[in-house]
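User: Please run a holo structure prediction.
Assistant: Happy to. Please share the sequence and the ligand.
User: Here you go; the ligand is flavin-adenine dinucleotide.
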Amino acid sequence: MNSQPSVSFENTSIAFSSKSDAALKKMHFMFRVMNYPLLVNLGTNFLKIALKLRLPVKPLVKRTIFELFCGGESVEDCREKSLELNKYGIGTILDYSVEGTENEEDFERIANEIINTVEKAGIEPKNPFVVFKPSGIGSNVLLNKIQVGEVLSDHQEQAWNKIKGRVNNICEAAFQKKVKVLIDAEETWIQKPIDHLVYDMMRKYNSDQPIVFNTFQMYLKDMYQKLQNAYSDAVKFNYQLGVKLVRGAYMEKERERAQTLGYQDPIQIDKDAADEDFNKGLKFCIEHLNKIALFCGSHNEYSNRYLTELMGNHNIRPDDPRIFFSQLYGMSDNISFNLSNAGYNVIKYLPYGPVNDVIPYLFRRAEENTSIAGQSSREYVLIKKELARRRANTT
Ligand SMILES: Cc1cc2nc3c(=O)[nH]c(=O)nc-3n(C[C@H](O)[C@H](O)[C@H](O)COP(=O)(O)OP(=O)(O)OC[C@H]3O[C@@H](n4cnc5c(N)ncnc54)[C@H](O)[C@@H]3O)c2cc1C
């Protein structure tokens, strides 16, 4: 019998309960600006040029889009926002969002920073996860060479061993502190060596509980099959499979490269096909929870609701420790806060890093929140609705 609490993602009073009127008005202004594709385009181009010319734009970025989507520049800066979310039962994942480095010194520094987040997560039971992007701790070029089977020079071999060492150090630290590690998925042309590495880590650290999580991008045609294969391996080698399920963030890049190099596009034929496999993936995980822990990373209302229904149909409690719902900081609070209010495990990614280094991340968020086909973004509509509700309550 389905005894699951019903969740409404329309309840803006719960969604924005942590926001003061002033904070909400500021968000309203920001999302309103982002609604205009032309302004986002002009703004991002202006910023790119300003940063190249070293113009002093950092304070402007920091007070606007950075504040909206990031926790701060350092782990310490994130504390306030993290505690605020914890008050509403929502956990946070410190996400060091520095991108685009290609040198060993930076890789080493970023790996140490991630271990620092493990230490912090280890002492905050409400924030039991850490996350990293493999391309942050190793060269994309090298990962691609390994993927296509190129013979490596001694120097490259050493660099590859360093990547493996860094991944192991992070997973080992997490294992010691009983913190879960999410390993983000990126482009398909570097994913094979990462997958090998991640499954090595699962065999090593996931025998008793899910510590290491791989990411399954369901916008890829072959990913549902890969999820099933990963489960079979977990059964065969007797470990817990950590599954982070997402749709996938690199569609345009993937399609463009496939077309330029003349190989088959790995992305699903259309959005419906990606949605169908994502939801099939959720169902598969719920039906195999004996060996799977599921982390659902999505802003899609249907998929989040569908997961609550699957849990209900299988008599799984909302706070079952094997299932987590997750959204990005600054986005889809209507999903996060309403799920948390109904008792589900919700964790928000809280990106942080020096302002200049998280700019690519901020541009992606701004683009995501522009209007599509003349329709205002969902965030903007919800904030407007909540402001109107508050105005009506005070008159
Ligand atoms: C907590 C969290 C963690 C994440 N981690 C990762 C990660 O490690 N790696 C990663 O790649 N992404 C990651 N993402 C981003 C994610 O993959 C999606 O890009 C983003 O969340 C939008 O998808 P959605 O499920 O929220 O819903 P929706 O907004 O309903 O779906 C949009 C997505 O559908 C897919 N799509 C859209 N149009 C088409 C089409 N024509 N054909 C096929 N597919 C289409 C694309 O994946 C697109 O991003 C993460 C997201 C969250 C919330």
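The mean pLDDT is 93.
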